[in-house]
Amino acid sequence: MRMIILCFLVLLFGCTEKKNGFSVEKIPDPMQHNGYVSNPDHLISDDATARLDKLMADLDAKGTAQVAVVLLKTIGDKVPKDVAHEIFGAWKPGQKEKNNGLVVLLVDDQHRVEFETGYGLEGDLPDIICFRIQQAKMLPFFKQHDYDEGMWEGMNAVADVLNHTDSTDLGVTTEIKPSLPDYIPSRKLPDEGNAILYVVYLAFSRLFAGFVIGKKDKRLVKDPPILYNPGLFSGLWIYIFPALEILAVILFTNYSFQWWSVPLIMYLNWFGYLLYRTIIVNINAKRLLSEENRLQRYTGFKLAHKGLWFTAIIYPIPFYFYYVWNKKRLQNLRNAPYNCDACKNPMVVLSKNEKKKYLSEGQLAEEKIGSVSYDIWSCKTCDTKKILGYDNGSERVSQCPKCTNKTFLKTKRVTVKRPTSRTTGDGLQYYECRYCNYTEKKPFVIGKLSSSSASFGSSSSSSGSSSSSSWGGGSSGGGGAGSSW
Ligand SMILES: [Zn+2]
Ligand SMILES: [Zn+2]
Predict the structure, then answer these.
(1) What is the spatial distance between Cα 7 and Cα 25, in angstroms, rounded to a whole number?
(2) Nearest CA-CA partner of 93 in 466, 467, 470, 474
(3) What string of pLDDT tens digits covers the 485 residues of the chain?
(4) CA of 378 to the centre of ligand 1 (A)
């Protein structure tokens, strides 16, 4: 199972990480020389660099925007949009409070220019405007390999838009000119961070499943009937479906992933499963539980809704309401008055003290360790008693093979032979009856040690970049646009 999941992850995310010589850390940070333009491959002239630096310094000084311009000969086979995003993440241009950073990346060999905007700029500089500036102001020059002029014209247009001195045909209010090609936003897909997140999801889901669903019900006597037993389908839905859902979004839609997209898919996937399970539980209850046997109905519903309170916290809509409704249903099943089987007159439930004299020693022992709790109904007219035992469904206590009370407690576990990565180990589980003191020990097998340290390559590089930059610490909104020529 683990292998299958790993394969999925590798298929899904592994292909995005290809090794090549390029890395964002190698790009010289212009802030180290109080500049804004990184031009390591000399794609534009020193004169153009100086002019652009001045333009950016102006925008920065006014607090309008902090713009990093990066011109690179190549980024290997990386995607320009991803690299622009990484540069943004590494340098963090933009004042922290305003998030008014912008990264402009030109990649010579891919013939591509990308804008990556901070949250704060998305209003003034929406993707469509970025795209129009690229198309109208930059590409005509880039196509003739005049990077000096294209970058200068483009960045002036950006400055005009941000300074609201835009007298050109690029303004927000202008309609799209028919001569411009259709606007195609660049897409963001899940990255390595999402692969790590998936591993976290799997671990968390195992815990959560144990909590809200419980273990597979292996009772031999199926009373009350099992309303839903998690099996292979549950496992697929919980652990594998999110990967398929992400894959489906990648393949069949044009959706651009945000940082919250994958977590949201995971959250909703669990929600879908829990909703499905709840519906099946109630359908099965109709089919399997007897209408009249309130004790069976109560226990059946109770066992099927073990972790419902926790589900209600995580998915208050609709599970909080379902939780309250289910609680009421249980209370009705247990506490609504019975009528006497013999004389049909109403009965009353006995208090804790009164019921002691009607319970056997074994039943009292069960109540004491909490495995079963008893309600005794007594007829006011003919004194007939009705004794109902409510099993709490504990997995720690089972029926004693000797005295048949539900007082057989799992006690200590002893490892006889330790498992290794190649061989299984042996253990002994001790049981002890809290009523008749009968003891037993059963051998069990301890699974092989898994070489489970699933290493997902090098995890994300440390974020503490050493440059003494005065980039403001803005964060990218993932917006922007890219154009090819
Ligand atoms: Zn009676
Ligand atoms: Zn016993």
Answers:
(1) 30
(2) 474
(3) 555 555 555 555 554 444 457 888 889 999 888 899 999 999 999 999 999 899 889 888 888 899 999 999 999 888 899 999 999 999 989 888 888 899 999 999 999 999 999 888 888 888 888 888 999 899 999 998 899 999 999 999 988 888 887 665 555 444 444 455 555 557 788 888 899 999 999 999 999 998 888 877 776 667 788 899 888 999 999 999 999 999 999 999 988 899 999 999 999 999 999 999 999 999 999 999 988 899 999 999 998 998 899 999 999 999 999 999 999 999 999 999 999 999 999 999 999 889 888 999 999 999 999 999 999 999 989 989 999 999 887 778 989 999 999 999 999 999 999 988 888 899 999 999 999 999 999 998 888 876 544 333 333 333 333 334 467 666 776 677 888 88
(4) 8
Q: Tell me the HSE value of 240 on the side-chain side, using a 13 A CA sphere.
A: 15
Ligand positioned closest to the Cα atom of 377: 1
Q: How far is the CA of 380 from the centre of ligand 1 (A)?
A: 7
Q: Is 106 within 8 Å of 147 (Cβ atoms)?
A: yes
CA 2 to each of CA 9, 196, 215, 234, 370: distance values in angstroms, whole numbers, following the listed order: 11, 15, 19, 15, 37
State the distance from the centre of ligand 1 to the C-alpha of 349, rounded, in angstroms: 13
55 closest CA partner among 131, 44, 111, 81: 44
In angstroms, what is the span from residue 440 Cα to ligand 2's centroid? Answer: 11
- Report how far ligand 1's centroid is from the alpha carbon of 385 (Å): 8
How remote is the CA of residue 434 from the centroid of ligand 2, in Å? 7
* C-alpha–C-alpha distance, residues 93 and 59, integer Å: 12
Q: HSE (CB half, 13 Å, CA atoms) of 217?
A: 19
Helices and strands: H and E segment counts in the chain: 15, 12
* Ligand number nearest to the C-alpha of 402: 2
Ligand 2 centroid to Cα of residue 388, in Å, is 20
CA 269 vs CA 26, 181, 242, 281, 433: distances in Å:
40, 38, 6, 18, 43
Q: How far is the CA of 364 from the centre of ligand 2 (A)?
A: 13
Q: For the beta carbon of residue 480, count every other beta carbon within 10 angstroms.
A: 29
